[in-house]
Specification:
Elements: E1 2-4, E2 8-11, E3 17-24, E4 28-32, E5 38-42, E6 46-50, E7 61-63, E8 85-91, E9 98-105, E10 110-119, E11 122-131, E12 135-143, H1 144-147, E13 151-159, E14 171-176, H2 179-183, E15 198-204, H3 207-229, E16 236-238, E17 244-248, H4 251-254, H5 263-281, E18 288-292, H6 299-311, E19 316-319, H7 322-325, E20 329-333
Parallel strand pairs: 17-18
Antiparallel strand pairs: 1-7, 2-3, 2-6, 3-4, 4-5, 8-9, 8-15, 9-12, 10-11, 10-13, 13-14, 16-17, 18-20, 19-20
Helix pairs in contact: 5-6
């Protein structure tokens, strides 16, 4: 088998393909995909779908055991730019209980990386190596239950090979993922790096991501200040119309502090409040109660509807006024 730089190839173990940009060490090739990233892969994991049209000399053809490519030098950009490094978890379409793990270097820096799994007080190294600028690497395909609850510890050292740059301090980052989150379709979003939707974890954030995070914190603090200035009666208030009761089930309207609570515990608290209101008003015939649950991912609304169908079958319910609440509220008529 003979491969030449410029050949069109298709991946055997995943969707996509691209153009061969180089071959290293006789077994490893780099494929330039449609997004402009070089994807390293083994030669036996691709199939050639088109040969380079231009006739090449013997010196440019790359055999499986060729060593000429070992002299390859990465052509660096003159601008260092900002460092940005991330992990992406994408659903494995072939095996529903698995995720594909990618390391993505969206910067002009070379990065030495180690990624390990915490085991009590020690780290078991899982992945290590060098990732070149503007490159993504498929690190592994993992069973979701293998990732569930495990703390990962990452360390990075950034540098440039042939261009001057500002010294970058070594970076350490740790994270932990719940298997339940990886099973939710809503956890995966469209992104600029993969064709498939993915759960993105920023290991080194760019300026935009940092500003977005600061903005989010500022907005949260502003909302907390406004909430503290409001009387507690806003948590459950009557409309001017005496026949209607409005109950806000957003967790921030029910509790001042939710730290330490899991999503399951938050949902259970919201449903308990819903049942409390329903029990207190179940004998108030024709009473209208608007439960504000928000649009979100629809879990709270779905649980409320299930409870109404199972426990309060004699009450009528419908979507509340779209003009006033959008899709985020349900009205119950006792």
């Amino acid at each position: 088998m003979k491969i030449s730089v410029g050949d069109k190839v298709r991946f055997l173990n995943e969707i996509g393909g691209g153009t061969v940009s180089r071959v290293e060490e006789g077994k490893l090739i780099y494929v330039l995909d449609d997004d402009g990233f070089e994807v390293p892969t083994l030669i036996n994991e691709v199939v050639v779908v088109g040969k380079k049209v231009e006739e090449e000399s013997d010196d440019s053809a790359v055999s499986l055991d060729a060593s000429a490519q070992n002299t390859y030098q990465f052509e660096e950009s003159d601008e260092a730019g900002e460092p940005k490094l991330l992990l992406a978890f994408a659903r494995d379409e072939d095996l529903s209980g698995n995720v594909k793990l990618y390391l993505i270097n969206d910067s002009n820096y070379f990065v030495f990386y180690t990624i390990g799994r915490m085991d009590k007080s020690v780290v078991n190294n899982a992945y290590h190596g060098l990732i070149e600028p503007n490159t993504k690497i498929h690190l592994d395909t993992l069973a979701i239950n293998f990732v569930d609850g495990i703390e990962y510890v990452c360390q990075f050292l950034l540098y440039r090979q042939s261009k001057p740059y500002d010294l970058q301090q070594p970076v350490s980052h740790s994270f932990k993922l719940a298997g339940a989150k990886l099973l939710k379709e809503s956890s995966y979003q469209s992104n600029d790096y993969l064709e498939d939707k993915a759960l993105i974890i920023y290991l080194i954030k760019g300026v935009f991501e940092k500003k977005l995070e600061e903005l989010s914190h500022a907005e949260i603090n502003k909302a907390l200040i406004q909430k503290e200035q409001q009387p507690n009666t806003l948590k459950q208030r009557k409309k001017d119309n005496k026949e209607m009761l409005e109950v806000d089930l957003h967790i921030h309207a029910l509790l001042d502090d939710t730290r330490g609570m899991s999503n399951k515990e938050i949902l259970e608290y919201q449903l308990a409040k819903f049942n409390e209101i329903m029990e207190a008003n179940k004998n108030n015939k024709n009473k209208k109660i608007v439960f504000i649950h928000g649009k979100g991912n629809g879990v709270l609304k779905s649980e409320i509807i299930k409870t109404l169908k199972k426990k309060y079958t004699w009450h009528n319910y419908q979507d509340a006024s779209f003009k006033e609440y959008g899709f985020g509220a349900t009205m119950v008529i006792i």
